[in-house]
Amino acid sequence: MTDTTTPAAWPRPHWQPSGEQAVLLFFVFGAFPEDMVLPVSKYGSPGLPDGVELKRFQNTVLAKWEGYPLGGALGDLLRNDNPDAYAEAKAAPHVVAIRGRFYDRDSLDYLRDTLGVVAALLDIGGSKATVIDPQILSLFDAAAWRRHYLIEGGAPTRHHVLIMSSPEEGAAGRSWVRTRGMRKFGRPDISLANVPDSELNRAGALSERFVDLGALGAHFEHGQGIEVDGVPGGLVVTLSGDEDDATFNNSHVDMRWPD
Question: What is the model's pTM?
Answer without folding.
Answer: 0.93
